[in-house]
């Protein structure tokens, strides 16, 4: 589902450009707003963790999210007036992304639970299957999306894509989940908050057993046993109090404990500093992808089937970047990896300068070859940049709230991308780059190249000794 979304979102791009006649900056603004639900993924994780529906935490939310993913495409396919107006279209696209983002969080949680139940032996295989399925969906969606745009009306494409969430909705009936009951609510809140009760809980403490006398160790163990007994009594009493509270109050206290634990974990410098870098790496670079889409379709006259092929090459580049990282770069320092990634992105932006300035024509290089090379290499380098983000996020997540905190990390990444798109839309509007008027696009790309070097200045936020290998 996540990978195959490229099938329908290519059609959305053409709907905004050809039917609604939006400018590149206005079109990019619509995309930025529509994809905002991906920036609040922890909210969905906390809701599904803390508020079971009929005693279940996963399947009901998967059903709700799938319905949200399904209905907008049906409505857009059947109601021409709604897909031909920017306001209703943006609202329905936002609702669709809300459902997709929620489903993504729920499925991630289900995968994490499956990994935990199967122990470490099956964990790598399951994650590999998940990523491979998304890549396969992306390749198929890009290929078929370009073909569909050439041969079908956009309303038919929306209706055709709705078959996938409909199949997902039917598959929800095949998912088995045990009923937890209301008593799971206070237990969850206690388990989340207990992992963060100590300020030093996020950083492994130094083993000092050899540096102190054994008598002190004995006294410390006795004191610890007394504290454990006291905590047990307090926990039993708190559970008794929780059982007497109304269900709504139990939900409130569970949500309050989850939000508090999440904020307390995120405030730790070892987490806050690296995530700040990844956020800055997005917002300091204007995203001009939608403007380049307009340039490729209107000025270069590239057809939808070719652009679909270019996205396939991009997916292959993403898979190639993952292979290169796992094979050669995972033992390298993260600062060095990220430095080379930023330099690589700056170099590829220079290829866009060559494309827009038309210098490649003098050497007999076609526009299609330039676009294909730029797409594949950009996605490969972005994957090299994204893999350290995944690894570092896994290293920084404290036990007990891995899923929710990882969703927060991904949301920060998505929010940075959204703000970068807003910045790109603002830059395009400031330079008066519009449909059919690309005179200042070259200046915009030059500004983008210069901004690509800014995140290198903030690399001091990344732990100095951190490598690309999970500890």
UniProtKB/TrEMBL annotation:
Membrane topology: Multi-pass membrane protein
Gene Ontology terms: cellular component: membrane
Disordered, as annotated region: 196-229
Cellular compartments annotated: Membrane
Ranges of Basic residues composition bias in the record: 218-229
Pfam annotation, one family: BT1
Main location per the UniProt record: membrane
CDD domains tied to this protein: MFS_FBT
Compositionally biased region (Basic and acidic residues): 204-213
Transmembrane segments: 29-47, 59-76, 128-150, 277-295, 307-325, 404-429, 441-462
UniProt KW keywords: Membrane, Transmembrane, Transmembrane helix, Transport
Keyword Transport recorded: yes
Protein family (similarity comment): Belongs to the major facilitator superfamily. Folate-biopterin transporter (TC 2.A.71) family.
Name this polypeptide is given: Major facilitator superfamily (MFS) profile domain-containing protein
Organism: Papaver somniferum
Lineage: Eukaryota, Viridiplantae, Streptophyta, Embryophyta, Tracheophyta
């Amino acid at each position: 589902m996540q990978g195959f979304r490229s099938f329908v979102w290519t059609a959305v791009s053409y709907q905004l450009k050809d039917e609604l006649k939006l400018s590149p900056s206005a079109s990019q603004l619509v995309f930025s707003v529509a994809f905002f639900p991906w920036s609040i993924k922890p909210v969905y994780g906390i809701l599904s963790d803390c508020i079971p529906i009929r005693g279940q935490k996963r399947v009901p939310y998967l059903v709700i999210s799938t319905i949200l993913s399904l209905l907008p495409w049906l409505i857009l396919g059947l109601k021409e007036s709604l897909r031909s107006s920017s306001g209703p279209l943006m609202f329905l696209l936002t609702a669709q992304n809300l459902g997709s983002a929620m489903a993504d969080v729920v499925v991630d949680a289900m995968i994490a639970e499956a990994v935990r139940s199967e122990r470490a032996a099956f964990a790598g295989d399951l994650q590999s299957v998940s990523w491979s399925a998304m890549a396969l969906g992306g390749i198929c969606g890009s290929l078929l999306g370009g073909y569909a745009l050439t041969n079908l009306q956009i309303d038919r494409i929306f209706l055709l894509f709705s078959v996938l969430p409909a199949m997902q909705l039917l598959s929800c009936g095949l998912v088995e989940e045990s009923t937890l009951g209301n008593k799971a609510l206070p237990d969850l809140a206690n388990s989340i908050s207990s992992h963060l009760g100590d300020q030093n809980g996020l950083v492994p403490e130094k083993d000092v057993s050899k540096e102190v006398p054994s008598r002190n160790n004995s006294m410390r163990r006795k004191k610890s046993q007394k504290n454990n007994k006291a905590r047990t009594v307090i926990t039993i009493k708190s559970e008794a109090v929780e059982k007497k509270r109304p269900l709504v109050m139990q939900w409130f206290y569970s949500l309050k404990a989850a939000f508090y634990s999440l904020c307390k974990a995120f405030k730790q410098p070892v987490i806050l500093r690296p995530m700040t870098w990844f956020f800055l790496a997005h917002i300091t670079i204007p995203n001009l992808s939608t403007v380049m889409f307009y340039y490729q379709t209107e000025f270069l006259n590239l057809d939808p089937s070719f652009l679909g092929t270019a996205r396939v090459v991009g997916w292959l580049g993403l898979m190639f970047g993952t292979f290169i990282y796992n094979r050669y770069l995972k033992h390298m320092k993260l600062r060095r990896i990220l430095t080379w990634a930023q330099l690589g992105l700056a170099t590829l932006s220079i290829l866009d300068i060559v494309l827009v300035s038309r210098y490649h024509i003098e050497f007999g290089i076609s526009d299609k070859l330039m676009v294909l090379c730029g797409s594949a290499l950009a996605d490969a380098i972005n994957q090299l940049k994204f893999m350290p983000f995944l690894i570092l996020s896994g290293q920084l997540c404290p036990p007990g709230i891995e899923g929710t905190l990882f969703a927060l990390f991904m949301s920060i990444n998505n929010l940075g991308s959204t703000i970068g798109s807003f910045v790109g839309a603002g830059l395009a509007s400031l330079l008066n780059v519009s449909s059919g008027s690309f005179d200042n696009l070259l200046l915009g790309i030059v500004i983008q190249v210069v901004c690509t070097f800014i995140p290198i200045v903030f690399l001091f936020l990344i732990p100095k000794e951190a490598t690309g290998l999970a500890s």
